[in-house]
What does this fold into?
Amino acid sequence: MVRCMIIDDEKAAIDVLVNYVSKIEHLELIATATNPITGIDLINRHKPDLVFLDIQMEEMSGIDILKIVGNHTRVIFCTAYSDFALDAFDYEAVDYLMKPIAFPRFMKAVQRAMGIIMAGKVAVVDTIPNDYIFVKTEQRGKLVKINYDEIDFIEGQKNYVAFHKGKEKILTLLNLKDIEDRLPKNIFVRVHRSFIVPFKNIVSIENNILKLRNRVEQVPIGDIYKDQLVSRTRDSTMK
It folds into this structure.
């Protein structure tokens, strides 16, 4: 079975490909995304064998996505523009499909991809978990890579989320729930509706206040998160 994903900023284009994938027995669709940044996160998390990837998207191009995620997966580009064909094949795309995509042409591209994957020619997938997150900053279109071990704490601030790392504060347009869903649960813990912290940075808990390593700020503990935090602290102590 070949595990695949679809990334395209047009829902109608995704619907066409979802229908096509459903007709091919050896394809398993594991995720779709209309947002390129969400797509990057899904690729890093699920490590699909094959991605059907649009090139011309608002926030970033499919080629930009491929540069970020590397060669851990095979890509079939799906686009309405022919201008990027040479660039696509420079990045070892399996195929380049022009919209509107006819099913026979789609099938041919999938057969080519399956041949490469099944023959073992696809790059070996790295099984080491990611130790970073890419976030979109308040500067339109700019992505910043933040290593998990650099994060002191994460704070929700009205329309922004702030990553505090040393003396630096990085603002991103995502909300705190989006960030929480993308972070590994074994490293980070939500302690308040406005705060996420790396568990290893917690120095002490007193009167519903967290003290963090190398920070003067005191982080509050929300009532709905307290039981989970105490339970996790107890489990850590018993190990």
About this structure: The helical segments are 11-22, 36-46, 62-69, 85-90, 103-118, 176-182, 223-238. The chain has a mean pLDDT of 84. The first helix runs from residue 11 to 22.
